[in-house]
Amino acid sequence: MSGTAPFTFTMRGIILALVLTLVGSQKFDIDPGFSSRKSYLYSYEGWVLNGLQEKNLAKAGVRLSCKLEISGLSENIYLLKIRSPQLEEYNGIWPRDPFTRSSKITQMVSSCLTRPFKFEYSSGRVGNIYGPENCPDTCINIVRGILNMIQITIKKSQNVYELQEAGIGGVCHTRYVIQEDKKNSRVSVTKTVDQTNCQEKVVKSLGMAYIYPCPADVMKERIIKGTAAFSYKLKQSDSGTLITEVVSQQVYQISPFSEPTGVAVMEAKQQLTLLEVKSEWGSSADISMQSYGGLRYQFPAVLPQMSVQLIKTKNPEQRVIETLQHIVLNNQQDFHDDLPYRFLELVQLCRAASADTLESIWKQCSDKPRYRRWLLSAVSATGTTEALKFIKSRIRSDDLSYLQALLSVPFALHLTKADEHTVSIAADLVTSSRIQKNPMLQQLASLGYSSVVNRYCSQTSVCPKEVLQPIHDLADEAISRGREDKMKLALKCIGNMGEPASIKRILKFLPIFSSSASDIPIHIQIDAIMALRKIAWKDCKTVQGYLIQILADESLSPEVRMMACAVLFETRPALPLITTIANVAMKESNLQVASFVYSHMKALSKSRLPYTYNISSACNIALKLLAPRLDRLSYRYSKVIRIGGYFDNYKVGAAGDILVMNSPGTMFPSAIISKLMAYSAGSVADLVEAGVRVEGLTDVIMKRNIPFAEYSTYKKIKEIGKALLGWKELPTETPLISAYFKLFGQELAYININKEVLQQAVKAVLEPADRSAALKRLAGQLRSGGMAHWTQPLWLGEMRYIVPTCTGLPLEYSSYSTALARAAASVDGKITPPLTGDFRPSQFLESTLQIRSDIKPSLYIQKFATMGVNTEYFQQAVEIQGKVLTRLPMKFDAKIDMKLKNIKIETNPCREETEIVVGRHKAFAVSRNLGELGVEKRTAILPGDASSNIVEEPFKPSDRASGEDFTKQEADSTSRKHAYNSQEDLHRVMERKTHKRDICIKLQHLGCQLCFSRRSRDASFLKNTYLHRLIGEHEAKIVLIPVETDADFDKIQLEIQAGSRAASKIINEVNAESEEEGESSLYGDMKAKLKKILGIENVFKIANKTRHQKKQPSKKENTVLTELGADPDTKHPSSSSSASSAVSSSSSSAVSPRRKEAGDEDENNQEEQVKNKDASSKSSSSSGRSNKSSKSSSNSSDRSSKSSSSGRSSKSSSSGRSSKSSSSSDRSSKSSSSSSDRSSKSSSSRSSSSDRSSKSSSSRSSKSSSSSRSSSSDRSSSSSSGRSSKSSSSSSGRSSSSSSRSSSSGRSSSSSSGRSSKSSSGSSSKSSSSSSSRKSSGHHSHGHHSRHVNRSSSSSESLSHHSHEHHSGHLEGSSSSSSAYSKIWEAHEIYQYRFKSAHRQEFPKRKLPDDQISSSQSSVRSSHASSRASWPKFLGDVKTPVLAAFLHGIRDDKKIGGLQLVVYADTDSIRPRMQVFVSNLTDSSKWKLCADASVLNDHKATAYLKWGRNCRDYKVSSELVTGQFADHPAVQVKLEWPKVPSSVRSVAEWFYKFVPGAAFMLGFSEKTDKNPSRQARVIVALTSPRTCDVVIKLPDVTLYEKAMRLPLSLPVGPRMPASELQPPIWNVFAEAPSAVLENLKAQCSVSYNKITTFNEVQFNYTMPENCYHILAQDCSTDLKFLVMMKNAEEAVNLKAINIKLGNHEVDMRPANGRVKLLVDGAESPTNVSLTSAGASLWIHSENQGLVLRAPAYGIDKLYFDGYTCRIQVALWMAGKMCGLCGKYDAECKQEYRMPNGYVAKDAVSFGHSWILEERPCRGACKLRHSLVKLERTVQLAGVESRCYSTEPVLRCTKGCSPTKTAPVTVGFHCLPADSATGLTDKQMKFDQKSEDMQDTVDAHIACSCEDENCST
User: Do 60 and 877 contact (CB within 8 A), yes or no?
Assistant: First the structure.
């Protein structure tokens, strides 16, 4: 036994171990719970803080601490008692300041919290919560927050798991992690809750009904995000698992601008700690408790007050009266500062008031107009059911005026809270008789009601039928009665509601779905389609199905189909549907629809907004199916323009759409819809939309009371029309103007102006009697005067978003905005002499009008944004407040003397400081509580001493490397020093945070100064985000401040005198000297040139740098002015001596064209001048031209501007005596002394080049390679024509200077015969038979090398060209290498070409010897001299001023100082000119402003503006020149600014930063270039009437775009002769609009057998003999004219025409080589004028033919010469024409439209359809239209059939036989062959049958009649 004992013991141990292991592998039962026999005491603390996440900024919050006692009552039901609750506020700098105890809040909350509560609890789950009856919601929710901490879900089988768990914030995604400490029987549980991922989220939003989540990213990019983390400690004991500690933390962050770091944070923390467990039962007092549901947060029935104020609402009536009194009494003269705040308070009080209370208040205020207005505004903005009841009772009692009702009812409906009670009240209100009897009020109220329904139904799953019924009834009634106005209103309301249940009603208005809708007007059909837009949000597929049917149905109006397309794209269709749309457009015959679809798809394809990503990519794919020619259609076709942008960093964007829809009957858009959408962080909102539609307006405007229907020809034209098979008059357009306005997708109002109103308006404008009556009424009102005082709230915007926190307190984000307007006006007038009874408008022209007015408009806008806790007891929030107050007082007396053309306006000078615009913004933490209403704690979020952040700590350097030798004194002094530095640094930091800016403009003559001041102090030093910039204080003001002046004055007077008396008023005489003062004489100019020739100019400049720089601008200006006045025949002196005859012409030019045109002198750059001189003195004649000659070797002589220097850069010619290029690659290029001597003389600042190419060649090592292609210097500006230049194969290279280097505005450089320089490569090898020509292009002069074209020529060819004949597009070379050159020509970019001025061609350069002045300079001089020699410098010498204006100060009726403006104009000349002079009348001042604009000749116009002392300090000039650019007609606009003030320059530089980005957005290409620094040029070249190339050259960049589309065709085509291209320039400027308008008019021409229609469709057609064709006819109901044509009997090509219009019939026939005119059958002279009842026509001879003009009938010009007929009709005849010339509707694909409205198969069928049949035997035309039978039988679908034509075919009349036929294609309808149907029985019905097949038959076009039957 003893042996087995150990074994037994061992087995027991093993079994025990196994059992323990098995038990250990299982999880303890850790479901927490409480014993029903014990009570548990916990300590609880919970707090909420709101603010930014950074420390040392202010925060606001609240903390609750208490003891909790939980004891069991029964199984799973426990009693909760809250002991000693303590509430503390936080309002201070976190974390520095402590929480402060608030006894008032504690007292208010304790009264409910200290009462007992019961709750159900089982397995860690909280069930129902019970509390005292009528317990406030805040207390219940705090209890929910406490119990939410013990809500825990334990899964026994898993340690990590996720689930959707119910909590205080709803059912949200929750993750658990469980860790067990078995040793100590403890369990740690971590629970995290994702508040943004909830199945049932508890949230309340207000004012966001019209903001929709984007389908693409519902879960992404939310601006509000939240999460919560709970940490549990559980202790296991025998009695179960007990929660010993819970810590919860919750964070909600809001990023208003979607910035990752720009966030405001709400932090909530709770801690629950077990203190004690007692073995005692819980006892509940006998208190009746009610169930308050589970843990889910419950919002109170009445939301808390606005979070910007906390007011007591116990006695609202008295408070409302008091607030009204405060508002009215304190805002009589001006806005009181607290008015927006008080208005919000009034709204809040009205929300708390019952309907009876509001009635009582109304009784007290109804007889006080101002009180009434404010009360109605506040009640309307309240948005409660009680308020709507109050408004309804006011309407029923008829207490409101019409204007008050218009403002109150819609405002109340749009702002009211939508619930079932409100909807029923709103329905009663809208259907009340008082609303119904007023159309405008009914419209606004019905639209408001439909918005209420929309908001209500968006909250419910199914929208009740009864709420939709009032609108549905309205629609049914409108259809049954045929009331268009009611139809429109019903459809607009249905569109606002956006409910799918309304679709059936909408379809009743569309002809495609309802046969009874065929007579419904087009504008109603469009409204029906627009009503589907909001419905698509709820039932997208159904709406898309209907819309695609409408779009594809060609029988519908194009406008209806285009609107269907627009709505279809708003539904965000998928790729298959978009492909279907593209397929429809591809087959579309209507170009309006095709253009609209294409442009819409193209606009969407470029969209960058995230919510359009799918549709954008789908459109990109579908566009591949469509022809790009649709993109080339003109403005006459419908388009969609989309402008938008998206900022990905901030997840915000916007898009604007403009829909332009044209109808066939108008030349201009018939409908325009513009829409703005905003996108932010996954949500989208339709901000604003407005649309205008015009129909039949041209008929109203052009209506001249001409009785067309009474003319004799009217019946004849009608009879002729009936003779045409199936002809109908075009339907009459009902004149209509309609417009609508939408806000946030809801239509607020629309307006319809019908025919009667339009006709009355036109009559009032055009009829003299009506015009006189209107003027008389106006004069009467002015004489009686008037006063008005009006203050009105314009807007109240409220947005609130509330979520619960884990503490049970609500977190509210809210935004409130108010806008209030005020206007006080007093106007009084007097007319002398008084108007008599028989008033005539001419009396006004003889009278004097005096007006005295005092107008004070002002606008006050205030915005609040808050984040924090908002309950009925207290508010703890962060608040940002901003306000803008604008005042614009206008008080003046005006006297207008109509007879003397004199106006005087007097006003008072600035006496006191007046704030015109004030904007203030501040952010603070605020605490309010109901117990201390008068005490509001505010702390600025950004404290004044916020410098303790590490980023602001100053760096403290140590003065000693070691501290060992520090004495105490040294240490003390050092510490003092550091302390001082710290204070300095702190001050510097604070200055850095506070930005100040003050800008004042002194208006000396008005006695005041206009100041803009800005103060800004923000937190951007912490993080540079928009939110941090908002945090702080900002203030901006525009203020008028009085200033002390030398002469104080009583009044300020502005006097304007026009006409002949202007000269007598001039005080300070303007003369030529004042404008041109200081001009140098011709002698001085010659002296300057002589200095240059002798080479002493540079020496003089360097010696007198400072003085020279100051005078240089005037020297340049004077030189030019002298030249302008010079005699054009004066010979210019030679500028080179015989000793220097070999010097390049450009180097010897007196004023280089580059220098003159660039105008880019920089007077302050002295260093560059010195550098330039050094450079030119060192540079070699060949290698001193370019620092890049390592690539182009000695062709560096082509780079003149490389040796230039900052505006004084020379075109340093290689004029050295020894111009052989030394090509050692290692050495700096140094020439002999003679060479450097010459180059220093030639590189003067007078030969300026762009300062952008200012790299001096002196400091560069110019490396000449040995390439033989580098032997040519082909540029005049830097030609190496030295006397020691050697070349064995001399090539005379032409000078081809670049457009922006040598002659930046089209001036060509001088012609110079350059020799090929010898290029030596070490051994000076001579290139004997190689010469290089190269092209010079625009960008080469900006630092880029041109390409070289090498060719070997067997013989030396001399290429001699005139330099002004070619531009950078031309290449040099022989014909043998033309193909190589053509390839390079094709490679040219557009910006490389050179503009050739037509002005230059008309005023060519004079031929001068080579050694004289450069030809470019002489061209400038000759052209200017020839154009201005006969002009006076001062127009006042030959003309009197046309206008004089004076601004004076007046003291004691004496005028003091001021300004004078005088305008001279010479507009009657063929070269018009205008001059404006402004001068200061103060004796001591010589400040003047001079402006001159003139047209020099047919091709050039210039203007300049000078100002400063005697107009000489600053200058800006511009020039407009026509010419050619790349062989296309072009215009160049050049702007130069030689010197402008620094302020103007800084503004321009700021603007200039945006140019590249804007150019990129517009599709321009960009190239960095070194263009002239003070010059901008725009070149526009017409490459076709519809396209242009644009090149913009700015100082640093060249922008260019090829083939830019023009909105309309211009009357100038490409490659036109100059004679045709250039009319007199005055015509171009003054008549350009009329020329373009004339070009828009369509013209139809018939010449021989070629016909060109109004739509420019050409076809060949041979007219059958003797038959009249309808050539062109007015097919409207007026039938104003008819033009017929037939072949004349005399010859084959001759025609005869017949015109019917008015009471006359005009025949034009060829006879004996001339055109004979017959009027009403009688021969008439060729010049005749005829009048028919107010409408005249004229006929006269022109160019061997006759011209008829009848503008009143719509014929602008008809020309006929026997062979050719051309008809030009008026613009307003568009879409109203018919005949062979077409409809004039821009529909080219539907041009062959026959009289019956169908489109013919070919041109011959089309022509035959318009033949006018004549009676048998009476007329010469023997042809008839008849349906024919196909002679053969055909197999159709396997059945033998006989076919009959569905279209008539020409046949000879009975008894006549055809002698000539023509094949035509017609459609056939087929019947089975055994059918008995005969053609004669059913002939007239086959044209109505379907077309089964097409075939070709022969039509008769000539007949021989021997046996004609005359009986029919």
Answer: yes
Query: CB count, 10 Å around CB of 624?
Result: 8
d(CA 618, CA 579): 8
User: 1025 near 257, Cβ under 8 Å?
Assistant: yes
The tokens for 732 are 């009459």
Distance CA 115, CA 1525 (A): 92
Q: Is the separation of the CB atoms in 82 and 107 below 8 Å? A: no
- Structure-derived torsion over alpha carbons of residues 1558, 1564, 1565, 1571, reported in degrees to the nearest 10: -70
Helices 558-570 and 522-530 pack at an angle, to 10 degrees, of 10
pTM of the complete model:
0.76
Nearest alpha-carbon partner for 220 in 824, 677, 681:
681
Q: How many CB atoms lie within 10 A of CB 1607?
A: 9
CA dihedral 554, 555, 557, 563 (to 10 degrees): -50
Tell me which residue of 469, 488, 470, 468 sits closest to 479, measured CA to CA.
488
Among the ranges given (298-312, 375-389, 415-429, 1113-1127), the one the predictor scored with the smallest mean pLDDT:
1113-1127
Question: Rounded to an integer, what distance in angstroms lies between the CA atom of residue 7 and that of residue 3?
Answer: 8
Q: Which helix (H) or strand (E) holds 1111?
A: helix 1105-1125
Give residues with Cβ within 8 angstroms of 905, minimum separation 6: 892, 893, 894, 895, 1053, 1054, 1055
CB neighbour list of residue 216: distance below 8 Å, 6 or more residues apart:
610, 611, 613, 614
Q: How far apart are CA 94 and CA 97, in angstroms?
A: 6
Contacts of 1317 (CB under 8 A, 6+ apart): 1182, 1194, 1197, 1214, 1219, 1220, 1221, 1271, 1272, 1273, 1280, 1282, 1285, 1286, 1287
What phi, psi does 1768 have (nearest 5°)? -115, 125
Helix (H, G, I), strand (E, B) or coil at 1824: strand
Q: Is 1309 helix (H, G, I), strand (E, B) or coil?
A: coil
Q: Do residues 1390 and 1530 lie in contact, with contact meaning Cβ atoms separated by under 8 Å?
A: no
Which residues, in sequence order, are bridge partners of residue 806?
Answer: none
Q: Is the pLDDT of residue 1141 over 60?
A: no
- The closest alpha carbon to 300, from 797, 807, 808, 796, belongs to 808
- Residue 60: HSE in the Cβ half-sphere, 13 Å Cα cutoff: 26
pLDDT in tens, 473-523: 999 999 998 888 999 999 999 999 999 999 999 999 998 888 888 888 899
- What are the backbone dihedrals phi and psi of residue 1043, each rounded to the nearest 5 degrees, phi first? -125, 155
| Residue 137 DSSP SS3 | helix
Give the span between the Cα atoms of 1783 and 1888, in whole angstroms.
23
Over 70: is that where the pLDDT of 836 sits? no
Under 8 Å between Cβ of 1394 and 1369: yes
- Asked whether residue 1339 carries a pLDDT value surpassing 70, the answer given is no
Q: H/E element holding 495?
A: helix 484-497
Torsion of CA 486, 492, 496, 498, to 10 degrees: 90
pLDDT for position 1483: 66
